[in-house]
């Protein structure tokens, strides 16, 4: 990769720590900035809008922890489906590896929650305190009525937005309309209040104050991303062969006549960077690939009538005039495993049983002899309906000749997302069984849509 930035001597009076220097990112215009803005609006719009979306008379996305039901549009998941969540997390992790090997830290620059919420907080800061130079002057100036008004306005926007973020987050776990009524009537529960304040405080602190420090010091991704990069990975890089030596010059002057490269050393790329690094010093772990430096540099190149791309998305092989290979062993392995996991996940969701049957024996008596040479076992059968509609189920038993089922009603109705327990008495001729035998308890719907089965042990006395 490009050369790492050289170590610079720092006078820190012998301390092991250096005081944090606030970063004032410069606002830039360009194609990548428009892409970031579109991603921010789309992702935050999705986050804030989803709790209000209704589906079949209920909230479309709701994680109902007390009822242990998770609704995602037309699907209902129960704790028994926890393996699907694990499967999904593995897909998410492998997707990160795959896209990092292909295109570097695109996730960090455009979709990471820390990046997205920080972008919103920076927008609010610009609305209340002005552009980069105005914000720097305001922070360095003494306190005045103007400064108090601007700082207060910013804090009010930040706090309001952070609390609304916490409120929306809780709305994924408590029905948002119920939550709204509780907020308006001041009857909010303790846990809801705690999580609204906690999540709001986390948003306020991370996006308002910590910002790039989260990416630099807290995020583990920056530490192990190097293991997923190679010479064919798309990264943001400064073209040293074209740009150096750097130096200022008048517009229209041929840089070669001055012995200079195309970089005029304006430092706009540094001012635009949200983490405060100089991309010209090489690839650094603090770079989140947001491409703000590309937009800043391209605008300068346009003014100087130089070709764009002094700072650009590229690969190390491309910089060294070597062919770039997208298809290579690591991308093939990542892509193949990822595709297999996605296909498998889709098949698992599409073919999962919409109704599950759990069977529990009555432990008070193993069996009971009845008149007519019958043996009776009592079970509790629990139906879990994961479908979005009600099902009427008929209970049957298989595995013993002459077996019969006795329940309180012929059809057991289980509503959408409901868990229903039913006492069932299963009888079989004593002449047909001795000791015990495995049987199948079957729940079928009359329309043939449901055929759920569970194995049980039928106990009988040993024949003499």
* Residue fraction in strands: 15-25%
Derived from helix and strand composition plus strand pairing, the structural class reads alpha+beta
Please tally the β strands and state the result. 16
Uncertain parts: 1-10
Give me the number of helical elements: 15
Please summarize the sheet with the most strands: 5 strands, antiparallel
Overall helicity: 40-55%
What's the end-to-end separation, in Å?
A: 83 Å
Shape type: elongated
Overall pLDDT confidence: 88
Radius of gyration: 32 Å
Overview of the structural elements:
The chain has 464 residues and is an alpha+beta fold. The chain contains 15 helices and 16 strands. Strand 4 and strand 5 (75-77) form a beta hairpin. The longest helix is centred in the middle third of the chain and has 26 residues, at 145-170. Residues 1-10 have low confidence and may be disordered.
Task: Please give the structural blueprint.
Elements lengths: L30 H19 L4 E2 L2 E2 L1 E4 L4 E4 L2 E3 L4 H22 L2 H5 L2 H17 L2 H9 L4 H26 L5 H9 L5 H21 L1 H7 L2 H4 L10 E4 L1 H4 L24 H5 L19 H13 L6 E4 L1 H4 L9 H23 L3 E7 L6 E3 L3 E12 L5 E8 L5 E3 L4 E4 L4 E11 L6 E10 L5 E9 L5
Antiparallel strand pairs: 1-2, 3-4, 4-5, 6-7, 8-10, 9-10, 10-14, 11-13, 11-15, 12-14, 15-16
């Amino acid at each position: 990769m490009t050369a790492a930035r050289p170590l610079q001597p720092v006078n820190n009076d012998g301390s092991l720590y250096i005081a944090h220097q606030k970063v004032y990112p410069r606002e830039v215009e360009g194609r990548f900035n428009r892409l970031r803005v579109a991603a921010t609006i789309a992702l935050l719009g999705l986050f804030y809008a989803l709790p209000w979306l209704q589906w079949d008379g209920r909230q479309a996305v709701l994680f109902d922890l007390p009822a242990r039901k998770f609704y995602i549009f037309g699907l209902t998941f129960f704790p028994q489906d926890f393996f699907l969540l694990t499967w999904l997390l593995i897909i998410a992790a492998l997707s990160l590896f795959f896209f990092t090997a292909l295109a570097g830290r695109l996730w960090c620059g455009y979709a990471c929650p820390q990046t997205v919420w920080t972008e919103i907080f920076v927008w609010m800061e610009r609305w209340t305190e002005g552009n980069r130079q105005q914000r720097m002057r305001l922070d360095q100036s003494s306190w005045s009525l103007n400064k108090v008004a601007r700082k207060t306005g910013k804090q009010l926007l930040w706090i309001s937005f952070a609390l609304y973020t916490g409120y929306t987050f809780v709305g994924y776990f408590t029905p948002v309309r119920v939550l709204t009524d509780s907020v308006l009537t001041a009857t909010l529960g303790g846990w809801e209040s705690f999580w609204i304040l906690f999540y709001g405080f986390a948003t306020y602190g991370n996006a308002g104050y910590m910002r790039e420090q989260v990416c630099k010091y807290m995020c583990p991704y920056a530490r192990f991303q190097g293991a997923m990069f190679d010479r064919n990975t798309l990264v943001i890089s400064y073209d040293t062969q074209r740009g150096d030596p750097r130096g200022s010059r008048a517009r229209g002057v041929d840089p070669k006549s001055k012995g200079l490269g195309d970089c005029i050393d304006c430092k706009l790329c540094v001012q635009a960077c949200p983490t405060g690094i100089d991309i010209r010093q090489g690839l650094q772990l603090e770079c989140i690939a947001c491409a703000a430096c590309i937009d800043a540099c391209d605008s300068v190149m346009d003014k100087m009538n130089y070709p764009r791309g002094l700072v650009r998305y590229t690969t190390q092989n491309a910089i060294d005039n070597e062919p770039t290979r997208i298809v290579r062993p690591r991308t093939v392995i990542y892509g193949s495993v990822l595709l297999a996991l996605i296909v498998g996940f889709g098949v698992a969701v599409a073919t999962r049983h919409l109704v599950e049957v759990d069977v529990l024996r009555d432990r008070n008596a193993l069996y009971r002899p009845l008149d007519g040479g019958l043996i009776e076992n009592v079970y509790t059968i629990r139906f879990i309906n994961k479908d979005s509609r009600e099902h009427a189920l008929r209970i049957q038993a298989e595995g013993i000749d002459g077996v019969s089922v006795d329940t309180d009603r012929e059809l057991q109705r289980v509503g959408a997302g409901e868990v229903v327990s039913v006492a069932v008495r299963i009888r079989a001729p004593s002449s047909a069984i001795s000791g015990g035998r495995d049987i199948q308890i079957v729940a079928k719907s009359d329309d043939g849509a449901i055929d759920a089965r569970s194995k049980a042990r039928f106990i009988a006395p040993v024949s003499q």
